[in-house]
Specification:
Radius of gyration: 20 Å
CATH class: Mainly Alpha
Strand content: 5-15%
Distance between the termini: 54 Å
Shape: globular
Strand order of the largest sheet: 1-2
Structural class: mainly alpha
Number of helices: 7
Number of strands: 2
CATH architecture: Orthogonal Bundle
Number of domains: 1
Largest sheet: 2 strands, antiparallel
Length: about 160
Amino acid sequence: MISYMKSKGRLSAVLHALLHMAHRGGPMTSEELAACLRTHAVVVRRTMAGLREAGFVVSERGHGGGWVLARDLASVTLLDVQMAVGDAGGAADGDGPHADGCVIEQSVQRALAGSLREAEALLMKRLGEVTLADLSADFNRAMAAHAARHPSPEGHHAA
């Protein structure tokens, strides 16, 4: 599970960026995305390159340019995104950091390997069932609920 735990943050950040792009409705620069993700624009460009190669985003050059989604949200699963950012799993490969020389670690890895493979297969299945459209719909529901709990001052005067 160690490799998944390290990559979980990257998958989350990429999904975060893609949803910002979807809700912006227009191009977003690497700098704008970096501000949303609290990272550097170089990191965004490097990450977006993998998404561009997978056909999920395109970049538009020039004034008013930036990154835009190239596919419909309903056609992209979380598993698609995970694969595009270079994280094809491998958390349950049974080759832990000390497995090559330590007999105890080898025993532990053998005992855990099957369970970890099953857990990873279940995770991959679930990621393949959730689309970016599902995430977007959840975001829209959360924003509507937030707006209902915290109406804007303009809303009080609009009646």
